[in-house]
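Allow me, if you will, to draw on your knowledge of protein folds for a short while. The matter concerns a single protein, recorded as an amino acid sequence and a row of backbone structure tokens. Kindly check, if you would, that the fold set down in the tokens agrees with what the sequence suggests. You will find the record immediately after this paragraph.
***
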Amino acid sequence: MSTIKLGTVPKSFKKVVSFPMLDGSTGMIEAEFRYRTRDQFGSFIDGLVKDAGVQADQVEGLGMAGLMKRTTDQNGRYLMDILIGWNLPDELTLDNARALSNEVPAAAAALMETYRTAVTEGRLGN
């Protein structure tokens, strides 16, 4: 059994994240996530929403290609804010995080959801 000592939190945590690939196989990324408390995660999300600052009329003019590009860019920035590292052969950079979001969107979504669940619900299980 683990002993809980309040007031001490880890700097990071690791998790192998799995996701469906287009060919039907299962992809996996071992990720090291930046630890945030629930309160810190709330502030983090508030900052993302504020930074996005998208009004409904701005979205209308984007078209589908523009909307997908904007989502890819935002997901890339989100991944950079939650990850410390990953076991992909490509270094963790903003360009590579954007590429992952664009080329393997299920991987980006799985990483983001794993992180959200871990810091808001305290669960790392499958």
In short: The first strand starts at residue 12 and ends at 20. DSSP finds five helices and three strands in the chain. The beta strands are 12-20, 26-34, 83-86. Residues 63-82 form the longest helix (20 residues).
